């Protein structure tokens, strides 16, 4: 969707959005329309009952009398007595606006921005949040639908934000805010597009090629093929890919936005482009969903684009391990012992616990090569985390309380919420092997997500580290406030907020 800034309303305008508040207060554009149409806006708000309109809702007036409009939408901000609305609340209002316009099959619409004092929020921040919310909610992956299916897509193609003449709105600041919203939306779309692709199109080599596109944003990209992985002795990652005809890849993406001597922040993603479970094969029902087992890697790619596009003043490295987990005559078997890059020997009890094998080598490589200030990994790692937390929050494991607190705060601010789960020496016993250093699963039906986390912790040393188990949040079978059903790009906005508020 195109996000446009204009100083004047379109010459011919059929759909207009104006802001009101839950107390019945009208923005200047809403008052002007109300005066012109004989009080129609105030009557519409009064008709919502004694409690007034619901905060965050959008009221639709069809062909309102006295106005040359097909559609007038009243977008309701919170009560003024509650103070400035949170950014997330404004983003979600923008999303509801886009959803309503899409349902009306409106291709283009304008939103008349209020006077600077109306929302008790800085004018550029209000614009950025509304625009980001609208763009995020308008996403649709229709690449493989034929033209006659277009009616099933959201039809909103362009949203024009009309600047008021109010002195509190500075055009250059408004344009910068809209650009920031575009950067967020584009980074999220990059992730969603990759995660949504079918696995006959998306496999390690093609995802690596997609990463090379980030060079256009100033990101340095290096791809490690299987020969290089073997030289580095990445035996755990190679054990996952050895059953597939598709060779594995490790992709290193670097954004250098700060001084050359500053240690980078590191984000690591699991990129299993399709997960059959290997020899420990999954049930057939629902296996098609395993195309998104690379969502952690997809998030890192979208995050790197977002940080580079907004010229983040920080050094960042994103590293993803890409593999396809397939059963074949060359596949790793249950009972095999493999040796990770660190020298740790791993007994493979279940080949469907493959993500931690991929990440073990990638975490070790990242830590040894880049000496980062911290590492955060994202992975659709365990079904156990879905049992524990449902699909409302991702699991957070961390060896550093400060980093954990920063991640929790960023999650709450963006709506990509986390819940901290335990680590500790008691859980180390769960992955003790009788014939190797460790095994790749814990005790049956006991703390499965923690078993995965303590496995990964073996490969991070003393570096501050957090693991986000996004198995329940990377994909949604229902619409969310800022995302239609499908790939969610969980973590892109969360980690961007983490960087912006704590490390720039």
Concise summary:
The protein is α/β, with parallel strands linked by helices and 504 residues long. The chain folds into two domains: 2-140 and 151-168, Leucine Aminopeptidase, subunit E, domain 1 (3-Layer(aba) Sandwich), CATH 3.40.220; 189-502, 3-Layer(aba) Sandwich (Aminopeptidase), CATH 3.40.630.
Write out key terms for the chains shown.
19 strands, Leucine Aminopeptidase, subunit E, domain 1, 6-stranded mixed sheet, alpha/beta, protease, Aminopeptidase, elongated
- Strand arrangement, major sheet: 7-8-10-9-13-17-14-15
- Total domain modules: 2
User: How is the CATH topology of the largest domain named?
Assistant: Aminopeptidase
Please estimate the helix content: 25-40%
Q: How far is the N terminus from the C terminus?
A: 29 Å
> What is the average of the pLDDT values?
95
CATH architectural arrangement of the largest domain: 3-Layer(aba) Sandwich
H/I helix tally: 15
CATH class of the largest domain equals Alpha Beta
Q: Structural class, judged by helices and strands?
A: alpha/beta
What is the C-alpha radius of gyration, as a whole number of Å?
25 Å
The tally of strands reads 19
How is the biggest beta sheet arranged? Answer: 8 strands, mixed
What would the principal axes of the Cα set say about the shape?
elongated
CATH 4th-level superfamily of the largest domain: Zn peptidases
Proportion of beta-strand residues: 15-25%
Give the uncertain stretches in residue-range form: none
Protein name: Probable cytosol aminopeptidase
Keywords: Aminopeptidase, Cytoplasm, Hydrolase, Manganese, Metal-binding, Protease
Enzyme class: hydrolase
Family: Belongs to the peptidase M17 family.
């Amino acid at each position: 969707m195109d996000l446009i800034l204009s100083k004047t309303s379109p010459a011919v305008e059929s759909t207009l959005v104006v802001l009101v508040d839950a107390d019945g207060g009208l923005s200047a554009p809403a008052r002007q329309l109300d005066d012109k149409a004989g009080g129609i806006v105030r009557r519409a708000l009064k008709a919502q009952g004694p409690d007034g309109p619901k905060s965050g809702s959008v009221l639709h007036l069809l062909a309102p009398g006295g106005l040359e409009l097909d559609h007038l939408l009243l977008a309701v901000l919170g009560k003024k007595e509650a103070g400035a609305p949170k950014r997330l609340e404004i983003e979600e209002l923008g999303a509801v606006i886009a959803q309503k316009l899409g349902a009306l099959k409106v291709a283009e619409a304008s939103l008349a921005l209020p006077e600077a004092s109306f929302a008790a929020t800085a004018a550029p921040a209000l614009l950025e949040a509304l625009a980001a919310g609208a763009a995020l909610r308008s996403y649709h992956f229709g690449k493989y639908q034929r033209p006659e299916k277009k009616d099933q897509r959201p039809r909103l193609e362009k949203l024009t934000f009309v600047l008021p003449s109010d002195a509190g709105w500075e055009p250059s600041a408004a344009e910068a805010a809209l650009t920031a919203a575009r950067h967020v939306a584009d980074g999220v779309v990059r992730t969603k597009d990759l995660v949504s692709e079918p696995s006959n199109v998306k496999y390690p080599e093609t995802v690596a090629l997609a990463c090379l596109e980030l060079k256009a944003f100033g990101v340095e990209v290096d791809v490690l093929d299987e020969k290089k992985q073997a030289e580095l002795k990445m035996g755990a990652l190679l054990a996952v890919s050895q059953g597939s005809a598709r060779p594995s890849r490790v992709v290193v993406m670097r954004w250098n936005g700060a001084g050359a001597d500053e240690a980078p922040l590191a984000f690591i993603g699991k990129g299993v482009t399709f997960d059959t479970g290997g020899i420990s094969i999954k049930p057939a029902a629902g296996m098609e969903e395993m195309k998104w087992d690379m969502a952690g890697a997809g998030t890192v790619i979208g995050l790197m684009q977002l940080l580079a596009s907004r010229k983040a003043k920080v050094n960042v490295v994103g590293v993803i391990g890409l593999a396809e987990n397939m059963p074949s005559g060359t596949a790793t078997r249950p009972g095999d012992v493999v040796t990770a890059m660190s020298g740790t020997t791993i007994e493979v009890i279940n080949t469907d616990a493959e993500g931690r094998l991929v990440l073990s080598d990638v975490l070790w490589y990242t830590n040894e090569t880049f000496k980062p200030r911290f590492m955060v990994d994202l992975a659709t790692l365990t079904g156990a985390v879905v049992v524990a937390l449902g699909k409302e929050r991702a699991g957070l494991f961390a060896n550093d309380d400060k980093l954990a607190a920063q991640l929790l705060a960023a999650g709450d601010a963006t709506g990509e919420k986390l819940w901290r789960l335990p680590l500790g020496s008691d859980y180390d016993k769960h992955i003790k092997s009788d014939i190797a250093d460790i095994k790749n699963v814990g005790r049956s039906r006991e703390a499965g997500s923690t078993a995965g986390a303590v496995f990964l912790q073996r490969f991070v040393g003393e570096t501050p580290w957090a693991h986000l188990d996004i198995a329940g949040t990377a994909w949604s079978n229902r619409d969310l406030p800022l995302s239609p059903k499908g790939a969610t790009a969980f973590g892109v906005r969360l980690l961007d907020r983490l960087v912006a508020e704590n490390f720039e």
